[in-house]
Here is the input.
Amino acid sequence: MSAAVQPNPRKLDVRAAARDGAVLRGATPLAQFPRLAQESAQPAADAATPVEWEAGFSVRNPRAAAPQIWLELKARTRLTQTCQRCLGPMSSNLAVDRRFRFVADETQAAAEDEEAEEDVLALEPRMDLLALVEDELLMELPLAPRHETCPTQPKLQAQTADFQAPDAAPNPFAALASLRVKDGA
Here is the structure.
């Protein structure tokens, strides 16, 4: 008995996958997700990091006039980013767990997406599942990545080693204080 061949996730027939109740899994190197890899602070080091993903397809209400095609997508990876506090490298763990419902076209998807709890996608003849994985992980990137506690304290001075600080300037308010007339004097 031969093992089942997994469909190509870059050219996936969603209807067939849903009809078969397919569950696809993979661990794809980060280098194969160019937009996500571009967000890495250490692209060469992160290139082989796996993006683990799982996609489960199903049909709900198969006997209804309009059966619904659903996708449950899970993905996770680790990405090196630059901490916005200490400017050192830090590891960001990204994870996705989403459900999608497919509809006939983009117009219907746009109309229903606002009201639906789940994400709504237009059904295409061939879907690039890995592009969807990449899109969802990109949306999980922190806006300003920061360590919980930075391993080093940032240097908050902008000077070079040969910089000589001027002697302490007089307080500008000290001159004003001498001009102030005291009550009753």
